[in-house]
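Q: My labmate handed me this sequence with no annotations at all. I'd like to see what the chain might look like in three dimensions before we decide whether it's worth expressing. Could you predict it?
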Amino acid sequence: MPLFGSKKEKKQKEGQDASGHPVETTKIVELYVDSINNITRNTDVTGKIDPYVIVYANDVLVGKTKPVNNTNSVVINELFVFKSKSDPLTTKLRFELMDKDDIGDDDEVGSGSFNPAVEESLENQLIHLKYKGKDIGSLTITMKIKEIMMV
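A: Here is what I predict for the chain of 151 residues:
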């Protein structure tokens, strides 16, 4: 007697239902904000900025990274997962680098964008950040497109 499942289940292939028909799949995007790099714009009077990143996909807010205190460069490694309404490669990504302030509104440090449709690779991409047309540093991101089963 098998420990798990029946003999019939053992013949079932991955990605098929019990009748052998293909299971519907969909694509999701895993977007990793890997790091904030060499930020030259300082919005604080004393010390360094307390940076965090706001992530948008096709102008829809995907999420925000956690703020990190008093730094101009930091490894973040935060993951955002979403499903695009169309081909994930046509998703336009926008990033806003912010400075967390305890008093008053947070300050915009800079922003940048990424268009996966025109890139050969989606891993370890450098996103150049600008503020009023001037380079102020960069982000490193990785975008992975995964096909998952819908059950």
